[in-house]
């Protein structure tokens, strides 16, 4: 890709790639908790779009996002990895197809084209990594997108 | 230069010499953005036509934006003019058959940037005379914002679109 595009900035540090089907998100590693692996299908949770593994005090509430970054109403196949995202006092766990830590990564972040920018949108830029587009976002934006879509 | 020529050459990019030589008629690309409805672009802003590109959807992007497409080492926004102009999205998003790549400048002297719009059919090159000038259609509030001018062609009012407005400014 063209490295001379206006607005391109260098990113360096530890990041986490979170994949939900075709959606690939890039977050700072400090905002993403350790990955847990889950087996089987969860039960329904306390609200639409929320699922629960286990029961009682040990229950783990999990959201599975679609490729459009909205909570899925039905549990999808292939979401074996759960990570907890934290933004201030709010924490929420999400299920992914794949997570990958990029250690001391050097990336080029490009802003979204002006025609695609929306104030408050969860994505405002992207990087190209190993031939794939990773959308730059934050734990707060992922949590807010999940909560907004769930109403 | 006639008023219509001036509109078609309004954008500040260097125009091809052949286009500048046509004092009474100016070249334009005609695009059918929905069944039976057309827009035109100044010929020098039209860069390439792509068949069935792969579109990467971007969460949270505007309803009139399909996503990003890769083209010559860049990622371009792909806009659906029909959704933009009628101010609501298609109920079921369909993969674009053809995509027209367009050039624009955010301001005079700035480098060229690129965006793309969906094209139902292949685009056509036509020539437009000043005598074809007409009023903008009234089926969208956005026509005055996004149009440089308008001409009558084969019974249709065809707005000439400003690519800078499309890609560098959010709709009002």
Task: Produce the secondary structure layout.
The complex is a heterodimer of chains A (151) and B (172).
Chain A: E1 9-20, E2 23-28, E3 36-37, E4 43-44, E5 50-53, E6 60-64, E7 81-87, E8 90-96, E9 98-111, E10 125-129, E11 132-136, H1 139-150
Parallel strand pairs in A: 2-11, 6-8
Antiparallel strand pairs in A: 1-2, 1-9, 3-7, 4-5, 5-6, 7-8, 9-10, 10-11
Chain B: H1 3-8, H2 17-21, E1 25-34, E2 37-42, E3 46-51, E4 55-56, E5 65-71, E6 74-79, H3 81-86, E7 98-104, E8 113-119, E9 124-129, H4 143-146, E10 147-153, E11 156-161, H5 163-168
Parallel strand pairs in B: 6-8
Antiparallel strand pairs in B: 1-2, 1-9, 3-7, 4-5, 5-6, 7-8, 10-11
What does this structure look like?
The complex is a heterodimer of chains A (about 150) and B (about 170). With about 150 residues, chain A is mainly beta. Helix content of chain A is about 10%, strand content about 45%. Chain A has one domain. Chain A has one helix spanning about 140-150, and strands at about 10-20, 25-30, 35, 45, 50-55, 60-65, 80-85, 90-95, 100-110, 125-130, 130-135. Chain A is globular. The model of chain A has no long low-confidence stretch (mean pLDDT about 90). With about 170 residues, chain B is of the alpha+beta class. Chain B has a single domain (about 5-170), classed as Beta Barrel (OB fold (Dihydrolipoamide Acetyltransferase, E2P)), CATH 2.40.50.180. In chain B, the strands form 3 sheets. A 6-stranded mixed beta sheet of chain B has the order 3-7-8-6-5-4. The interface of A and B includes residues 2 and 110 of A.
Short description:
The complex is a heterodimer of chains A (151) and B (172). Chain A is mainly β.
Mean pLDDT of chain B: 86
Biggest interface pair, residues each?
Answer: A-B, 26 and 24 residues
User: What value does the average pLDDT of chain A take?
Assistant: 90
The rounded distance between the terminal residues' Cα atoms of chain A is: 38 Å
């Amino acid at each position: 890709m063209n490295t001379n595009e206006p607005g391109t900035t260098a990113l360096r540090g530890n990041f986490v790639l979170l994949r939900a089907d075709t959606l690939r998100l890039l977050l700072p590693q400090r905002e993403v908790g350790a990955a847990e692996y889950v087996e089987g299908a969860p039960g329904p949770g306390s609200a639409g779009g929320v699922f629960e593994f286990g029961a009682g005090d040990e229950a783990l509430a999990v959201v599975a996002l679609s490729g459009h970054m909205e909570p899925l109403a039905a549990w999808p196949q292939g979401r074996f990895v759960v990570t907890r995202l934290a933004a201030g006092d709010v924490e929420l766990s999400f299920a992914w197809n794949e997570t990958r830590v990029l250690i001391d990564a050097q990336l080029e972040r490009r802003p979204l084209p002006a025609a695609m920018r929306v104030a408050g949108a969860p994505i405002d830029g992207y990087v190209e990594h190993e031939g794939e587009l990773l959308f730059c976002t934050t734990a707060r934006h992922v949590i807010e997108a999940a909560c907004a879509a769930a109403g | 230069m006639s008023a219509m020529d001036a509109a078609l050459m309004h954008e500040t990019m260097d125009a091809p010499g052949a286009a500048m030589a046509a004092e009474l008629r100016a070249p334009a690309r005609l695009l059918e953005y929905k069944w039976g409805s057309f827009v035109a672009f100044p010929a020098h802003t039209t860069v390439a036509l792509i068949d069935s590109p792969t579109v990467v959807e971007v969460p949270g992007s505007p309803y009139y934006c399909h996503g990003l497409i890769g083209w010559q080492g860049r990622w371009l926004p792909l806009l659906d003019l029909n959704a933009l102009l009628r101010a609501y999205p298609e109920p079921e998003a369909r993969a674009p058959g053809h995509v027209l790549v367009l050039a624009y400048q955010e301001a005079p002297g700035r480098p060229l940037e690129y965006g793309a719009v969906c094209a139902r059919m292949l685009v056509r090159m036509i020539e437009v005379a000043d005598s074809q000038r007409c009023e903008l259609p009234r089926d969208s509030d956005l026509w005055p914002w996004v149009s440089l001018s308008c001409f009558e062609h084969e019974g249709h009012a065809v707005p000439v679109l400003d690519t800078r407005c499309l890609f560098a400014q959010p709709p009002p």
